[in-house]
Amino acid sequence: MAASKKALVAALGLIAGLAHADTTLLNVSYDVTRELYKDIDAAFVADYKKKSGETVSIRQSHGASSAQALSVTQGLQADVVTMNQPNDIDLLAERGQLVPVNWRTRLPDNSAPYTTTMVFLVRQGNPKNIKDWSDLARPGVQVVIANPKTSGNGRYTYLAAWGYKKQQGATDAQAQDFEKVIFKNVPVLDTGGRGATTTFTQRGIGDVLVTFENEVALIDTGVGAKDFDAVYPSMSLLAEPPVTVVDKVVDKRGTRKEAQAYLDYLYSPAAQEIIAQHHLRPRNAEVFAKHASEFKPLKTFTVEQIFGSWQKAQQTHFADGGTFDQVVVDKR
């Protein structure tokens, strides 16, 4: 009898232990947020432990944004996704109904806890005198851009160049011709933004890299800063990288509470401070004001202003047979 009681107590203890086992979340993100989320994760884990007494661990997956989204639709068990443009999350709603179509409304600021924009990185001293988008179309200028078919980074760049031309009064045909000239100057199309950075900074290819402001700032203030200069064009596209819980996954895994807490934490003053330290523009007005001197004022326009919506931009420019395919047809 005593042995049976001991066995029962042991079994109950095992069940209790399993019930309180550590929760692990997978955040599937785009490829230039590795450093950001390394710091966010550590801060969140400590904060969640302090508030709830529970231990959560975070695993990260990084790559070209659109490729990452496709991996989730194909079965990668992401509890949350933190992408760089809305189309990649819309894909999760359209293929497999992994998230609801109204996912944008579930968190503040269209579920985008920070903003950034597209700027230039050039060789030290700017030997090609690159100042604006029009300079990317000059003969003899090599431009490094991530592939818009696989990378949100590249997509933002393409749309920023198109929008720049439209803001100058160009027709769509003229904007497309402008893109053709720029992409003739592109020696290689890397699948993601970090790959493009490596091509420019480590492989020594190109005269100018077009990428997110935070990626440029990371390089411009890093170990190799003396070799590069940041250049801000006259205007650029506002990037609002969105986040969401992946409903089908968290409900299957029982991790909704922790996943939601993780995304809510991104809007906290502590996380917004980390975001600012990684050269991303925080949504929190007080945190932004504290770091305002670090962010150069820049005229920006939105996808909605120039293209109507992200869905229209995707269909017109990046779907098979769209304008981007027409722009690069000569490169194939």
UniProtKB/TrEMBL annotation:
Recorded superkingdom: Bacteria
Keyword Signal: yes
Keyword check for Lyase: no
A GO biological-process term: sulfate transmembrane transport
Protein keywords: Periplasm, Signal, Transport
Any one of the GO CC terms: periplasmic space
Signal peptide start and end residues: 1-21
Record's protein name: Sulfate/thiosulfate-binding protein
Species name: Caballeronia arationis
Organism placement in taxonomy: Bacteria, Pseudomonadati, Pseudomonadota, Betaproteobacteria, Burkholderiales
